[in-house]
């Protein structure tokens, strides 16, 4: 029956992370940080919604919720594309570095603000967006989609804020 134990080592990715915990400099609180093995969130880790926040500027509140059983880190800005349009939303505001990125525990949410821009005649209207997460890697992700009926996308004024931990800040950045 001892052969059942070797099959539990099917998680080799977790083992290399342990030595890095002890490799930190003495006295550095980051080396004792329980987040040392918390990886960036991908679209496989979260659910995604978009809610209309301000019709005159085509502003939407983007929300992700960790649907997994492990915490993950929310890095940078969401990568948002508009329906069938080429390109993606421009980044607005400075995102925290990886050390200060939001830890998203299971069931917890993070928010970003998306502004399509005022209908100035230079853009187009789309009815959906797609979002992927910044993972700071080449990890392939399946874009998560959300309906955005009548979202006007200005060619010059569209933007998305970095992820934050509350809805009010996401819409005010």
Question: What this model shows, in words?
Answer:
The protein is mainly beta and 173 residues long. The protein has a single domain, classed as Immunoglobulin-like (Sandwich), CATH 2.60.40. The protein is 9% helix and 36% strand. The protein has helices spanning 4-7, 17-22, 167-172; strands spanning 46-54, 59-66, 72-82, 90-91, 102-104, 109-115, 124-134, 144-153, 159-160. The strands form 2 sheets. Strands 1-2-6-9-4 form a 5-stranded mixed sheet. Strands 5-3-7-8 form a 4-stranded antiparallel sheet, with no helix packed on it. The radius of gyration is 19 Å and the shape is elongated. The termini are far apart. Residues 41-163 form the DUF4232 domain. This is DUF4232 domain-containing protein. Pfam families: DUF4232.
Low-confidence stretches: 1-30
What proportion strand? 35-45%
Total discrete domains = 1
Q: CATH topology, anyone?
A: Immunoglobulin-like
Shape: elongated
- SSE arrangement, N to C: HHEEEEEEEEEH
DSSP helical segment count: 3
The number of E-state strands comes to 9
Structural class: mainly beta
- The overall pLDDT average reads 83
Outline the fold blueprint.
Blueprint: H1 4-7, H2 17-22, E1 46-54, E2 59-66, E3 72-82, E4 90-91, E5 102-104, E6 109-115, E7 124-134, E8 144-153, E9 159-160, H3 167-172
Parallel strand pairs: 4-9
Antiparallel strand pairs: 1-2, 2-6, 3-5, 3-7, 6-9, 7-8
Region (Disordered): 1-32
Domain DUF4232: 41-163
Pfam families: DUF4232
